[in-house]
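Good morning N.,

You mentioned wanting to compare the apo and holo forms, so I went ahead and generated the holo version with zinc ion. This is what I fed in:
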Amino acid sequence: MQKAGEHDPSGYFLIEDAFYNDLRDPSAIDYSKPVFDWLRNSKDEALKKWECIINGELQQKQKAILGTVSTSHLPHFRAFDMHTTWFRDLRFRLGAAYLYCHQGDCKHTIVIRDMRLIHQEDMQNRAAYPIVIFQLKPRTQKCSVCRIYRAKKVAVDNKWAQENPCYFCDYCYSLLHSVDGIPPYENCSVYDYLHD
Ligand SMILES: [Zn+2]
Ligand SMILES: [Zn+2]
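and this is what came out, ligand included:
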């Protein structure tokens, strides 16, 4: 995104009823603001949605049995700056799905799976935390043509290619496309490829 000039440093974590906005970068914007505006200006709609989320199924059963539905209340959402919040200040439930949103509307589910007391063999220096203990290796595609070299370009909707999207190493790409970097014809897009 940085390369494409579309990088946005803004983001937030939504944990229980609190937004933790990433405002470290001076150009970052408060993503939670439009949500709060919506909660304020469209209270009925928000409440309806909240009820559907919380007790959609239960509510239908209640309706069938009692003919009435108990009304729930919207949580009292709050917003904090992420960079001034400590992990120890978070209130969370193990196994609950929380949200990380960044780059406009790229959303990731976050789950705190387990929790334990510090062990003798753990790093004792507080400043060293958080510690990464697992990192998914990025997957890289091989060239779809020679199947030997790493792909450097990916073509979408290329009628000359055998697959869609089709991956090319630099050499195979140059064999098929006479003018480097220029798509072979309209409606075909070629992008630089780094990894999946
Ligand atoms: Zn993302
Ligand atoms: Zn190749």
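Residues 20 and 175 are 50 Å apart (CA to CA).

Happy to go through it together on a call whenever suits you.

Best,
F.
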